[in-house]
Write a structure and sequence with these properties.
The chain is about 75% helix and about 0% strand. By secondary structure, it is mostly helical. The protein has a two-stranded antiparallel ribbon. Keywords: Cell membrane, Membrane, Transmembrane, Transmembrane helix.
Amino acid sequence: MALAFVGALSALGLNLVAGYAGQLNLAHAGFVAIGAYTVGILTVDHGVPFWIAFALAGVVSAAAGAAVGLVSLRLRGDTFAIFTLCVGFILYLGIEKWDGLTRGVVGLMDIPAPPGIGPVSFATDRGQYYLALGVLAVGVWLMRRITASLVGRSFLAIRNGEALAQALGLNPMRTKLTAFVISTFYAGIAGALYAGQVRFLGPDIARETRTFDALIFAVVGGMGTLLGPVVGAVGMSWAIQALQGLQDYRMVVFGPLLVLCIMFFPAGIVGALEARFARRRAALAEKRLAEAAPVPGAAPRGSHA
């Protein structure tokens, strides 16, 4: 569950730039890896306290996201997605080949566990669970504030049409870059949590398959919804664990289940629920208006025959 919470935090960041701003960043796992290796390198090689490295992980990932975004966000649609896929592969190769910094394919080992805060210890599995849950709760709360603000509404305006948003006075490049930087900050924090839990890092953390995992979490839960990535990450983690008994055949079962979920819930689980509640609220509002409307031919209330 702690790893599921980390996946949910990563998916929250990807959902912001892809689901709200409409920019599919396929290098997302690379920024998760930047955050994770920032913690690993600073704590193992330079003796930096874990929580300082943890905070720097988000900043370093966001700075790398700003540099990549300034170049990539000038592209649109499929071209942008393919460009970021190439950037993600470059980040993966950089981690694999830069032996002097990242240890290459050998991996970075002996990353310290997050130290306790006061009487609270994070050295145990239970402590890691509550740490990941707490960070995820803060991440969801911040994301709620962002998406409900004018900044969040500008992301939606860009997704729905850049030309119209620009005509309304928005700066498309600045708006998309803001979403990209916030997204990569979330990725860096997710990577920092992952490093503190697993305590070993290898190049595979930056593979494109990790990006597709986060993307599937968001799609299954509901792309462009607040809680969709959380529901998708937790639900899919439970499903995968429940199918562990099938060993090599579990993906034969899991694949069709995933396809059926996308077929019957194209807007995701949370998206389908939100649409259902919206229809119910609309029906109730229409019913109240019908009851309040005067009946044709009826005498006004308070009049005498």
